[in-house]
Design brief:
Structural class: alpha+beta
Number of strands: 4
Distance between the termini: 58 Å
Number of helices: 1
Strand order of the largest sheet: 1-2
Order of helices and strands: HEEEE
Bound molecules: zinc ion
Helix content: 10-25%
Shape: rod-shaped
Radius of gyration: 22 Å
Largest sheet: 2 strands, antiparallel
Oligomer: single chain
Strand content: 15-25%
């Protein structure tokens, strides 16, 4: 047999540990060019611009 826990982890202790497990919502911004929502610090997937400058052709 391998190593086993000495005691059962209580519901409270388990819940306290998992209180940090929630996923955060992605940081969304509005594109300057097409006004669509885009990920912050990323090239707009809709029109291919970044900070109001056309970076990639779509
Ligand atoms: Zn855009």
């Amino acid at each position: 047999m391998g190593a086993l826990p000495k005691r059962k982890i209580s519901k409270q202790r388990k819940g306290n540990r998992r209180s940090h497990h929630a996923l955060a919502a992605p940081a969304l911004t509005v594109c300057k060019e097409c006004k669509a929502t885009a990920l912050a610090h990323h090239v707009c997937a809709n029109c291919g611009s970044y900070k109001g400058v056309q970076v990639i052709a779509v």
